[in-house]
UniProtKB/TrEMBL annotation, chains A, B:
This is Transcriptional regulator, TetR family. The lineage of its organism: Bacteria, Pseudomonadati, Pseudomonadota, Alphaproteobacteria, Hyphomicrobiales. PANTHER family: HTH-TYPE TRANSCRIPTIONAL REGULATOR YJDC, TRANSCRIPTIONAL REGULATORY PROTEIN. It comes from the Bacteria. Keywords: DNA-binding, Transcription, Transcription regulation. Gene3D superfamilies: Homeodomain-like, Tetracycline Repressor, domain 2. Pfam families: TetR_C_13 (PF16925), TetR_N (PF00440). Signal peptide: none annotated. Residues 8-68 form the HTH tetR-type domain. Residues 31-50 bind DNA. One of its GO terms (molecular function) is DNA binding.
Amino acid sequence: MGMGRPREFDAETALDQAMEVFWRHGYEGATIAQLTEAMGINPPSLYACFGNKEGLLKAALDRYTTLRNIWMDEVVAAPTARAVAERMLMGIADKQTDPANPPGCLLVQGGIACGTGSENVPFELAARRAQNEDQLRDRFVRAKAEGDLKESVDPAALARYVSAVAVGMGVMASSGANREALRQVADVAVQAVEAQSARG
Amino acid sequence: MGMGRPREFDAETALDQAMEVFWRHGYEGATIAQLTEAMGINPPSLYACFGNKEGLLKAALDRYTTLRNIWMDEVVAAPTARAVAERMLMGIADKQTDPANPPGCLLVQGGIACGTGSENVPFELAARRAQNEDQLRDRFVRAKAEGDLKESVDPAALARYVSAVAVGMGVMASSGANREALRQVADVAVQAVEAQSARG
DNA sequence: CCAGATATGTAGTGTTCACTACAGATGTGG
DNA sequence: CCACATCTGTAGTGAACACTACATATCTGG
């Protein structure tokens, strides 16, 4: 009863490579060929080790969330609610634009499809969202000129903020969030805009 | 030199159906078979009219953004920056949970892949995001108990807000937003949390 | 050194996909 | 009524996909 031929690759190292592929191309956009090439193994090894494509994704997500939870522990260790939010959101700003990783967050980007031949679709969508952001920015420029917004406000930054909240709400809604949950988010966000108001 | 056989379907009606399919299943998750069935036509008619799948998406996006821009015109017609933000974000909360439409926003969901057999992947991702939201909520419960947050604050709502901003930033980063842009968003969001603080 | 067990590489499998050839149907201009 | 142009439905096409059968290689226990 021998123990069989030992595995020739390191599972964690291979998972890191798979994680990057899912992160960059999304679940459906990532092909087994891309995954196996990045992991440096052949399909049978992948299936023997992780079951199937979805099993590999879950293993990659486990690894991602393990690392992320360690970071979140540091985040919630901040002394105040404000400091927690600052540490988390500023940290995200840095991490999501770190050239060492694909842009964005695996937990969002993993659901984005960019299969071969349609990589430009997400950019097409982004361009349409940018139109509304520009519209908001123009409106906030006017608000500033009218004395409605503080002199210190950057209208483009405020418009980007409102757009970001809107996008976040969209993803939440797609995942099943109900109306009350979205309204609570909107309510806090509106208060943030109000705080930029000259009378606020 | 006759003018040929006339088209037997209405392009705008068909586009509305296609828009719903892209909205619900994402670009890659939507198959030509699903699209043609929803549109009530056969593939050759689709290709004769819209060129290819991506052409159909762009036509559907055109229709979506046309309707959306009309609504945005009403939004920016609000009297103050605060009212603009309120009208937009509360309107989004309602629209994105309207049972008459698929949940979420086509401009975000259109990039989400839910092909047959992997519909549960987006929910798997959402479940992982919820873990971090719960972590935040617990932290804000503590902050409230410590008198760091106002008595009127709902810790779950505030955690949901911070999570929504984080998700929005993730989508922006995926679309090419740079670090400074994300930091500006984070900065406004942090001020919103600060406004919920007892000393704020 | 042999038997059993597991991993690996090659070379496929069936399925599904976006897309289209083709023939017949339905219109217009002469 | 005829030549021509455009649409429609049937029935595919080749390509790409996730996944696997199989022979071979490499280990352990006895």
